[in-house]
Every structure is written in structure tokens, then in C-alpha cells.
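Hi there, hope your week has been kind to you so far. Would you mind checking whether the C-alpha cells look sensible for this chain? I owe you a coffee for this, so here goes:
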Amino acid sequence: MEQTLKRYAELIIKVGVNLQKGEDLVINATTDSAFFTRFVAEKGYEAGAKSVTVLWSDEPLNKMKLQNESLETLTDFPEWLVKSREYVVDKKAAYVAILAEDPEIYKDIPPEKVAAVSRARRQAYKRFYEASMSNEIRWCLVAIPNLAWAKKVSPTLKDEEAVRYLWSLIFKTMRLDKPDSVKAWRDHQDRLKSLCKIMTNKKFEFLKYKNSLGTDFSIGLPKGYYFTGGCETGRDGIEFSANMPTEEIFTAPDRKTANGKVVASMPLFYNGNRIEDFYFVFKDGKVVEYDAKIGKNILKELLDTDEGAKYLGEVALVEYNSPIQNLKTLFYNTLFDENASCHLALGKAYPCIAGSENMTKEELSSLGLNESLEHVDFMLGTPDLSIIGIDKAGNETIIFKDGNFVI
């Protein structure tokens, strides 16, 4: 087990942030992940890290704060805490975030309080979030089990068995069941790059989605869009994988072009709360109607974050016949569940526009890219999902049939 964990840590360093000799490494980790954080730090030093800094958090303590402190206190983020994130940007450090979360830890906390703190955090850390979304820094988001998450995934198993089983699933999604996991990841990245090239060269103006769940929806792509996925390229020209695992290719849509109904195919966990059986209706890009059987009030808090939270910032394509989907497991964690399904994201857009690194926010906005404090993925992929691309001349190309790529 320890050797597999070290291989996982090595994968994060070599493929995730692609740490270069002499660079600083910053790890954001929960106290539940302390033992694994040490492995990542060890592999960072072995790769030549100049320094390793760990920013710790503790979910039960965070919940305690939400239960006992006033909203005024909770939303007043101290300067030293903001500076700790800006340090990552200033140092151009490689940044690894290790999640070990309870999917519903905040379910007993008033959702408006949780949402207000989330908004304040995103505003306080705005420079850091913008640097990561624009690839000014190389970053990687990964996860490891804790007991609460493992029991949510496998409630009938005993505690140790549940944790062990979730580890086994994560190892498969990370291709650690392959003899050479680094090579397996490079091969996987090459395939996703090939799909990105095809989707970019097609120069589609619109994508049309339809399935039996009720999704009947179209969305436009901005001029100069490109698809990326598997790995991205930092501003420094070095490739990295922002999410591990990942099975998606994605781009930014034109924020004012979404029309129709999108029905979610999987639950969404947002701010420690569950949203289930929900849908959105879009008109000229904006959510004009929505509902949920579970968590409608949570959905309202998300949409009310700011004006941009009511528009879309990402279009992501994931085959239904993907390694994560084939595990037939609901992970209760967006990092994994979004890579089992085609998805969209409400909120801020990744700047997937040719030449975006030299554009101002105003220029990106004029091309249709969305701005928001939020970026929240929700899943819509199904076994019968069809996606059609339409180019400027009106020619139609079948991209997805029966949930999978056919392009």
C-alpha cells in the first residue's frame, strides 16, 4: 500500500504540477491527509523542489467556526490568510490541493451562511483564483479518502473496508493499476490532445445537446475558441494536469448563447450540501428557470452569488464509456463525478481563446467569456446523449452518439 501511495504522490509531482528543479511547491491539505501530504512533499524534494510549504485546513474545525462565529467574523478574511495564497502567485509556485472531504459536512448549517462565507473567500482569494484559471501558475487538484467520504460511497461496508475500497477505486481512476502509470497518463493525454485538435479545427459555431432525460439545449462557441484537456500549458510553456483524474476536454462558451433545458444526470455537492434531480432553463445565456427535488435553496444561493453565476463558463465533453463511469460508482465528489459525464459549469470561464494571455478582461468579455466568483460543474451526460456541432455554413457534424465520441 505504501509503495502505491508513493507512486500516486510521484504522479502528482511529475504529471500533475510537472514540478521543475528549483521551483517552490505549495500544498494545500486537510489534516486528514497529513500522512499522504508527507509523501507528496517527499516526492517534491526528490524532483528538486527549492522549498515545500503546506497550508493546512481542518473540516470539523471549519464546521465548528460556522456554527459558533458571526457572519461578520467569518467573512472577514485576515490579510495573512490572503497573503498565503498570493504567495503562491508571487513565487510562481507549483500548487497541489489535496482534498479529503465529507460530502455533506455542512448540511446542518444554514445554506445562506455557507454561501456567504464561500463568496467572501473567493473575493478575498480572487488574485489566486484568477492566476490558476489563466494558468499563470501550474496547479493540480487531487483527492484521497477519509472515513466520512468512504462511508458515503459504501455505507454497507465496515469503516476500514470502506476506506480501503475507496482507495482501490481512486487507484484505478489514477491509472495506478498500470505497470507504468506515468506512461499510461502520457498516452491518455495524447488521446485527449487529439480530440482537442479535432474539435478546435472544426470551428463550430454551436453545439446542440439532446437526450431522453429531458435535455434539449444549444450553446454557442466564441470566435477563436480552442478545446483543451488531459493536460494544459502554463504561461511558462510547461505542461501540467490541473485535475487528476481527468477524462474531459473542454472550452469556454459564448455566455449569451445558451438556450433550452438542461437536466442534471447526477447529484451535485456544493459547499458541503447535496443538490439532486435538478434542471436549468436558459434563455440568451441566462438561467431563467430552475428546480430541484433536493437542495433547491442551495441552488438559489449558488445562482445568487453574482450575475455571472447565472451564465455558463465551461463546456466539457466526457465519453460515457470512460474509466470512471465504468466503475459504476457515485463518488459524491465533483472531481470524480464530473469525469464520468459530460458537464457544464456555471460561472467564471477558463480563457480558452487564442491569444487570451495578451487580452484584458474587457476584451475577453467582449468575445463572450463569462466572469464570476463561482465556477461550479454539473453533470448532464447519459448513455443516450447526442451532441451535434454546427459550423458557420450550417453544416452539421455528429460529435456524440449514444453518449460517446464518434467524431
User: Anything to note?
Assistant: The chain has two domains: 2-144, 199-405. Residues 181-201 form the longest helix (21 residues). Residues 199-405 form one domain.
